[in-house]
Amino acid sequence: LTDSISQCHQQALRVGDIEYAVFSSHMHCQVMMLSGSHLAVANKLCDVLSKEMIRLNQVQSLLEHSSIHNMVLQLAGGDDTAFDFPEISFKSEDEVLDEAESSGK
Predict the structure, then answer these.
(1) Please, what is the Cα angle at 86 between 82 and 92, to 5 degrees?
(2) In sequence order, which residues have a C-beta less than 8 Å from that of residue 28 and are 6 or more positions away?
(3) pTM over 0.85
């Protein structure tokens, strides 16, 4: 299953559909969590996807994905949080909106 999701992600990127690429991988992480897959594997996949979302500037998707990643971390019994993104320097929604308006994203 991981190979098919990776292929789906890569094919979507190849045709320029960044939102679907991110969405398909996000759904894969969610299915892994809900199906009881090995949490360490789900955590690694969630972490990789978080970094990919940052690279692709998919901040809104990242916030949604972080809630799933946070549940994986909690189910695994960890004290970590999935909401720490040093690469993103926004302090408020207004800053995010200003960036989106100025960059056209």
Answers:
(1) 85
(2) 1, 2, 5, 45
(3) no
